[in-house]
Every structure is written in structure tokens, then in C-alpha cells.
């Protein structure tokens, strides 16, 4: 199951959205490792193989959730 990761970057109006095949736990672990070291870089590979790199010091927030792309219908 694909996981959608939204990354807010300091001083940037738009958030980055990456859909990855990695498990939410693996994404969370990679984020923790990037934030724990000085000069760390948070790295994600999307489902097409594209790599997104974000300097950990510039991360404002990260939302990790189940991907909802492809759903049809109305939400209440």
C-alpha cells in the first residue's frame, strides 16, 4: 500500500507531497535518523523511483498517511 508523505519546508509556501511504497514506520524511522544528526538529510523515493532530498534543518513538519489517490466518491 502506498503512503503519502507531506513535508512542510521552512520559508516555502507549498508543501512537498511524495507518494512512496515504503511503510509508514520506515518513513518515520528515516525522518528520525535525519533529524537526530547535525547536517542530516531526509530522503524519500517515490513509487516511480524519483528521489526527494530535504535538509533536515529546514523541515517544518511532516505528515505521514495512507494514500487516497484513486478514490471516487464524496466524503462526509
Number of helices: 1
Broad shape? globular
- Report the helical percentage: 10-25%
Class derived from helix and strand content: alpha+beta
Q: Kindly state the mean pLDDT as a whole number?
A: 88
The strand order across the widest sheet is 2-1-5
pLDDT below 50 for ≥5 consecutive residues: which ranges? none
- H/E topology pattern: EEHEEE
Distance between the termini: 24 Å
Instruction: From the alpha carbons, calculate the radius of gyration and give it in angstroms.
Output: 13 Å
Can you summarize the main beta sheet?
3 strands, antiparallel
Question: Percent of residues in beta strands?
Answer: 35-45%
The count of DSSP E runs of length 2 or more, i.e. the number of strands, is 5
Description:
With 76 residues, the chain is an alpha+beta fold. 17% of the residues lie in helices and 39% in strands. It contains 1 helix and 5 strands, in the order E-E-H-E-E-E. The protein has one helix at 24-36, and strands at residues 3-9, 16-20, 41-45, 51-55, 59-66. It has a 3-stranded antiparallel β-sheet, with helices on one face. Strands 3-4 form a two-stranded antiparallel sheet. The mean pLDDT is 88.
Brief characterization of the structure:
With 76 residues, the protein is of the alpha+beta class.
Topology, please?
Elements: E1 3-9, E2 16-20, H1 24-36, E3 41-45, E4 51-55, E5 59-66
Antiparallel strand pairs: 1-2, 1-5, 3-4
Amino acid at each position: 500500500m502506498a503512503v503519502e508523505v507531506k513535508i512542510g519546508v521552512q520559508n516555502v509556501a507549498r508543501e512537498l507531497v511524495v507518494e512512496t511504497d515504503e511503510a509508514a514506520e520506515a518513513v518515520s524511522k528515516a525522518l528520525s535518523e535525519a533529524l537526530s544528526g547535525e547536517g542530516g538529510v531526509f530522503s524519500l523515493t517515490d513509487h516511480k523511483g524519483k528521489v526527494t532530498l530535504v535538509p533536515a534543518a529546514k523541515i517544518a513538519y511532516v505528515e505521514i498517511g495512507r494514500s487516497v489517490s484513486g478514490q471516487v466518491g464524496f466524503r462526509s
